[in-house]
């Protein structure tokens, strides 16, 4: 199966490029008394609204095993952040659309062959996938985060600040590789699963946990976490470790549709619709 987020070879040059071990966060704005809303859209770019009739209808496809982005709703119909975003795109373009669930395996070839108009399913943006399909603008990116117990969440995070501190991380993950490259003085404590790493932080056997921001955001608000912990430092978005992000995959010859979707994404952000969807599905934001 193709990975949802591509993990590329670690580049030693990142060590020099990342001052103080921190990767710059995305442009973002804070919702009133709430999480930060990530912003990956260029405010200086002006896209032309598609001409009426240039896009007739859109056949979207997604998966049902990628929560909170796509999963079966209570009525069995597709639900999730990606599903609602696809519907919002169609509303903004004022075109009808359908959303069909397909298995992730083979989805890239399905899009490339034009059997669907667009896939909003976390297909990794890689040189191989770019050779087969086109992609919209990136609308969301994976972010890695540190989590600490609440009493220690305000302590500084940096290569020297973490010297000798125990940091839980899942063995063999991109997060472990990032930690080794950017925070080499930290004492990495490897765990087989994210749940084991979370339990270690809660019971105090490690000082910090480093992992996927989405997973950790949901854990922080869960009953097992019990309000023990909070985000500290970050976010960390380096694509060489964590992938280029979420974009919509389209057949390579559908330039008209790609431009229309890019315009709709930009417009949805400007109108606050993107922020509304983000807060609906990520009440504890991961940026």
TrEMBL record:
<dbReference type="Pfam" id="PF00497">
    <property type="entry name" value="SBP_bac_3"/>
</dbReference>
<dbReference type="InterPro" id="IPR001638">
    <property type="entry name" value="Solute-binding_3/MltF_N"/>
</dbReference>
<protein>
    <submittedName>
        <fullName>Polar amino acid transport system substrate-binding protein</fullName>
    </submittedName>
</protein>
<feature type="signal peptide">
    <location>
        <begin position="1"/>
        <end position="30"/>
    </location>
</feature>
<feature type="domain" description="Solute-binding protein family 3/N-terminal">
    <location>
        <begin position="57"/>
        <end position="285"/>
    </location>
</feature>
<keyword id="KW-0732">Signal</keyword>
